[in-house]
């Protein structure tokens, strides 16, 4: 079973030539954002000088809209799901509450029978094809659901990232309780969400795209109160290295 018709990149290649966009691009434009194109997406490059935004990420907290990340859900019986993931990751195994990273893709287990793969935008179509091929070859039910447009994704990075989340969720994000690669479905700002700790003080927040405006306002305000700011992908590249702003 495939839901490729929901894929933004598939719609674009089927005749819609305009770049894909964040559902709240209008908010970013009103805030003075600069835009750039990457892998068929129009992304926020920054709101000001990238050096200042990188400093916010290093010294306080930065919040970045990463709507362009691919989100693909695989559903299958637990044994089959584990087999498909292992086959696509070179033998990687999923564990409850921990994401698996392989070749730039984060595999985030929702349940024993559901996993969400987070991909850089340039890798989404390829991985979707691989997942669909594996699902079709299976001898029992397996399905791939395209969630790129259905889920929003924001990076929350910096030494005060945990404090920013603490204003909106009861999840304990202290390092001893939520280690690197930690993943949890949780309520954030009274909405269903997922939090992935990628490494250090770098977190990814996933939520329903319909809440994107509300979530952005809550986190941008919280970051501002803590001495941070909204940031673009240029600041993430400056802070974390080439590819960090666009990749998963």
Summarize the structure.
With 248 residues, the chain is α+β, with helices and mostly antiparallel strands. It has helices at residues 8-13, 25-30, 50-59, 78-89, 124-137, 161-166, 212-225, 233-240; strands at 20-21, 34-38, 41-46, 62-65, 70-76, 100-102, 105-111, 114-119, 142-146, 151-157, 183-188, 191-199, 202-208, 229-230.
Q: What brief labels describe this structure?
A:
alpha+beta; 248 residues; 14 strands; six-stranded mixed sheet; 31% strand; five-stranded antiparallel sheet
Helix and strand topology:
Elements: H1 8-13, E1 20-21, H2 25-30, E2 34-38, E3 41-46, H3 50-59, E4 62-65, E5 70-76, H4 78-89, E6 100-102, E7 105-111, E8 114-119, H5 124-137, E9 142-146, E10 151-157, H6 161-166, E11 183-188, E12 191-199, E13 202-208, H7 212-225, E14 229-230, H8 233-240
Parallel strand pairs: 1-3, 4-14
Antiparallel strand pairs: 2-3, 4-10, 5-8, 5-9, 6-7, 7-8, 10-13, 11-12, 12-13
Helix pairs in contact: 3-8
């Amino acid at each position: 079973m495939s839901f490729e018709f929901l894929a933004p990149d598939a719609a674009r290649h089927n005749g819609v030539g305009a770049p894909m966009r964040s559902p709240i691009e209008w908010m970013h434009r009103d805030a003075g954002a600069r835009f750039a194109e990457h892998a068929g997406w129009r992304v926020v490059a920054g709101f000001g000088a990238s050096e200042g935004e990188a400093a916010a990420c290093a010294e306080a907290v930065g919040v970045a809209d990463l709507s362009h990340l691919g989100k693909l859900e695989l559903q299958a019986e637990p044994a089959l799901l584990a087999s498909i993931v292992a086959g696509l990751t070179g033998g990687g195994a999923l564990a409850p509450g921990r994401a698996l990273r392989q070749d730039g893709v984060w595999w985030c287990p929702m349940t024993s029978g559901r996993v969400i793969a987070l991909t850089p935008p340039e890798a989404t179509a390829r991985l979707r094809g691989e997942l669909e091929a594996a699902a079709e070859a299976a001898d029992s039910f397996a399905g791939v659901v395209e969630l790129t447009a259905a889920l929003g994704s924001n990076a929350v990075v910096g030494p005060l990232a945990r404090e920013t989340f603490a204003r909106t969720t009861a999840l304990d994000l202290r390092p001893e309780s939520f280690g690197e690669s930690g993943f949890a479905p949780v309520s954030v700002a009274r909405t269903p969400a997922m939090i992935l700790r990628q490494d250090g003080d770098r977190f990814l927040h996933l939520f329903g795209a319909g809440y994107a405006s509300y979530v952005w306002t809550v986190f941008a305000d919280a970051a501002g109160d803590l001495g941070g700011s909204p940031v673009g992908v240029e600041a993430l590249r400056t802070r974390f290295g080439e590819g960090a702003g666009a990749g998963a």
